[in-house]
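May I ask you to comment on the folded chain given beneath this request?
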Amino acid sequence: MKTTRTLLILFLLGLSALAESQLNPPPPPPPTVAGKIDKVDSLVNEGNIRGAIAEYKKMYFLNPGDSRTAYNYACVLSRSSQADSAFRYLNLAVKSNPSATPLTDPDLLALREDKRWTDFENNLITMINEKNGNAIEDIGYAKSLWRLQCMDQYCFYETGLAARKLGPDSPVVTALRRFQIMINEKNLKDLESLLSQKGWPKRSEVGPEAAGAAFFVLQHSNADAQQKYISLFEKSCRENEASWQQYALMFDRMRMNQNKPQRYGTHTFLDPKAGSPNELYPLEDEAKVEEWRREIGLEPLKDYLSRTGIKYVPSSATKE
């Protein structure tokens, strides 16, 4: 359910993952089904998984060759614990469109716990390597990283749903957020164990999705862990083994967690009480931000902000 999840990833984290995909994104849906997609997304956002299953079933049988629909159908079936049917449509989806997306998708966590997952994962890795010239060399490391990213994204959907239904101050939302903190702490321990054994993951060895898992886990950790690994992350970027966009996001998050201004302008306020969530978090140096962004290949800040709706008024403008 990719179109739904993009609403739940905080501070544009999902954009960097999509940019690093091994697979070209699927083409936009034809106009004849656009309304159906809007309807099924609304059902998912409302937590009506049974209704979403019924709609995806109709959509799939109208266009059986559409791998996007087959994949999303598998996701809602997985969320409904219908493992047999979920595996059926998931296999159909990846057969025509193999990518590592299912290996990091929290919608499919129920399938990960099924004994059939290992065979599915191994077969998909084979298809990806055949398609991309053996892009995944260290398969064991990649599998561990994919699972970490899947767990990192777990509960985003449920927490967002509970907040919309019950309000952000609901005890259910509070409990889910505490559970996410527990998951984040476990993920960080597992990641640090992997990094001590294997070193920072390289795209050339584990593929871009798996390499990005280290970023996602650290992004949801703490300033000490981010400070500990930021130089390794930078080194990997300079070797073209990691994403500069993800680096900028983590560097700015680290600075925010240290109660310091951000450098690259990638974040709005983490705490709405400190400012509008639509407002750009303070910059380290307004005069240098464009230079810093240009050095690592990011577009100009003004171009980025023009598309995001984030409010930013340079302090120099307020003095005039």
Q: What stands out?
A: The chain has a mean pLDDT of 87. DSSP finds 18 helices and no strands in the chain. Residues 1 and 72 are 5 Å apart (CA to CA).
